[in-house]
């Protein structure tokens, strides 16, 4: 009876979110409450302290994703500074200029610049701001509305893959080392960038803006190779910056990698402080230092091994100095308040995700007692359902979840901002799948959700702005996003099956 009740709650919650009858940030905590009520009514009952105590479901669930919430708030602050400094506008326009007069060059430049920006910024406000700059540029070179929407959505998802704030959500829910998440995020970035370039080439071929199929193919391959080279360079620097067990053998490369990042950064900050000391006013418009704002948090986290919280604090400090002008003393307090407020919906959503996860797997007092799934009635009820259908082989993993990739749409069970992390914790605790394989599954299918889901606020806004049907945007981008998801599952199977960590 309890198993049937939990299934009803999950299905009803998914349908409610799919039909937009109840927003996800309200549906998730309501589902958690309904599951707890059903467990008490149909199960063996729950002790009061395991639900309402200081280490119960509600107390632990609401704080389960606290580190991810802090990173989201800091990311909102940094995003506010970038948006109000003019750095984003200058980056986009410079990227378009580098593309020349060729539609393919401009479209690919815009794609990569949007990806760079969204490694740091986020939220619908940032999407609107960037779109107001990007859409006219794409329109003037003959890029159609559906292609323009796809370029922006792929760029946003590319940036999200390398956004350290998103990594923390995986580390906190699946209890993985951040290096494991980083490594797979880089692989997904290369795959998605190649598919996005292919999407751009095919769309421009369809519109007649590019007449050579060879050019479109070479562009896709070139973007993929360039992104792979970037990822390889970051990985090499990261490997040199973190000393292995034999510290004496790698101390030299580690120090060199650290100095390669710290010295230029220190020089930039020193030049800014010198200008301030001399009382100089910055030139009209953003200074050249602003180009590095989206890169600084990523570099200090990937190369120097900083925790994302520390990396974002460094990024905020650098952004504030690099955009210093008259009135900047008020900019930082305003960014702290308004930037934090801009991500409040995401923070509330994480609160609901954490509550649903803790409701599913049980509070620490149960897990620390060595009781396992049988110690918590919810996991005990759902475990048989998943054990019979979850693939245990690498081939089954790729084929099975590859066919189920569309379930990431419409707030389905693999949607990261719907039931995704709740289902992931069940898979982790009730099936033989490793946490790393589940992370690869969620990140791979997350591309389908991030690019094509018609319930995303950015998809809806872009469709309205471009006067196209949001379902048409989904149909145009889904084949490419689905292909990336399958390739990501293949990469995940190679990395996380057969004893690989």
Describe the structure.
The chain is mainly α. The chain has a domain at 66-344. Helix content is 75%, strand content 0%. The chain is built from 24 helices and no strands. The longest helix is centred in the middle third of the chain and has 31 residues, at 247-277. It starts with a helix and ends in a 5-residue tail after the last helix. The model is unreliable at 240-257 and 370-374 (pLDDT under 50).
- The stretches of 5 or more residues where confidence is low (pLDDT under 50) are 240-257, 370-374
Number of helical stretches of at least 4 residues: 24
What is the end-to-end distance? 38 Å
Beta-strand content: under 5%
By secondary-structure content and strand pairing, the structural class works out as mainly alpha
Radius of gyration: 23 Å
Q: Averaging pLDDT over every residue, what do you get?
A: 76
Q: How much helix is in the residues?
A: over 70%
Described by strand count, sense and barrel closure, the largest sheet is: none
Q: SSE order, as H and E?
A: HHHHHHHHHHHHHHHHHHHHHHHH
Q: Compute the number of strand runs.
A: 0
Question: How would you describe the shape?
Answer: globular
Topology:
Elements: H1 2-18, H2 24-42, H3 48-52, H4 57-63, H5 66-85, H6 87-98, H7 103-117, H8 124-140, H9 145-161, H10 164-174, H11 178-207, H12 213-241, H13 247-277, H14 295-302, H15 308-322, H16 328-342, H17 344-361, H18 364-367, H19 377-387, H20 394-403, H21 420-430, H22 435-452, H23 457-466, H24 470-496
């Amino acid at each position: 009876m309890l198993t049937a009740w939990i299934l009803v709650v999950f299905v009803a919650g998914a349908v409610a979110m799919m039909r937009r009858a109840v927003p996800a940030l309200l549906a998730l905590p309501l589902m958690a409450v309904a599951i707890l009520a059903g467990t008490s009514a149909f199960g063996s009952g729950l002790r009061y302290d395991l639900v309402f105590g200081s280490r119960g479901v509600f107390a632990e669930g609401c704080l389960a994703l606290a580190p991810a919430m802090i990173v989201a708030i800091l990311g909102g602050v940094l995003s506010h500074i970038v948006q109000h400094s003019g750095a984003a506008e200058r980056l986009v326009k410079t990227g378009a200029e580098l593309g020349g007069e060729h539609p393919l060059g401009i479209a690919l430049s815009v794609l990569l610049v949007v990806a760079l920006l969204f490694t740091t910024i986020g939220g619908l406000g940032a999407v609107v701001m960037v779109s107001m700059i990007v859409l006219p540029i794409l329109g003037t070179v003959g890029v159609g509305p559906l292609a323009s929407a796809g370029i922006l959505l792929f760029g946003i998802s590319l940036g999200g893959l390398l956004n350290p704030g998103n990594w923390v959500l995986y580390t906190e829910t699946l209890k993985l080392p951040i290096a494991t998440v980083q490594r797979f995020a880089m692989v997904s970035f290369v795959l998605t960038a190649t598919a996005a370039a292919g999407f751009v080439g095919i769309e421009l071929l369809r519109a007649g803006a590019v007449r050579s199929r060879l050019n479109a193919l070479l562009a896709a391959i070139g973007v993929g190779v360039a992104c792979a080279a970037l990822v390889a360079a970051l990985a090499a620097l990261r490997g040199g910056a973190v000393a292995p067990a034999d510290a004496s053998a790698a101390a030299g490369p580690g120090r060199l990698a650290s100095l390669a990042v710290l010295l230029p950064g220190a020089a930039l900050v020193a030049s800014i402080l010198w200008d301030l000391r001399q009382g100089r006013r910055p030139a009209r418009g953003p200074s050249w230092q602003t180009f590095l704002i989206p890169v600084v948090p990523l570099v200090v986290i990937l190369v120097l091994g900083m925790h994302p919280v520390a990396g974002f604090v460094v990024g905020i400090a650098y952004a504030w100095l690099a955009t210093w002008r008259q009135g900047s003393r008020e900019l930082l307090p305003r960014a702290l308040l308004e930037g934090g407020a801009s991500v409040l919906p995401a923070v509330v959503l994480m609160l609901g995700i954490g509550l649903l996860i803790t409701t599913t797997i049980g509070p620490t007092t149960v897990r620390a007692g060595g009781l396992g799934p049988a110690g918590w009635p919810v996991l005990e009820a759902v475990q048989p359902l998943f054990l019979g259908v979850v693939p245990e082989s690498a081939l089954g993993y790729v084929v099975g979840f590859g066919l189920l990739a569309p379930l990431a749409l419409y707030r389905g069970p693999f949607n990261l901002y719907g039931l995704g992390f709740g289902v992931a914790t069940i898979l982790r605790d009730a099936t033989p799948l490793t946490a790393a394989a589940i992370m690869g599954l969620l990140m791979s299918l997350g591309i389908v959700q991030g690019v094509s889901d018609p319930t995303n606020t950015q998809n809806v806004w872009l469709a309205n702005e471009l006067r196209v049907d949001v379902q048409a945007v989904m149909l145009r981008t889904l084949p490419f996003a689905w292909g990336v998801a399958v390739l990501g599952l293949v990469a995940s199977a190679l990395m996380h099956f057969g004893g690989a960590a």
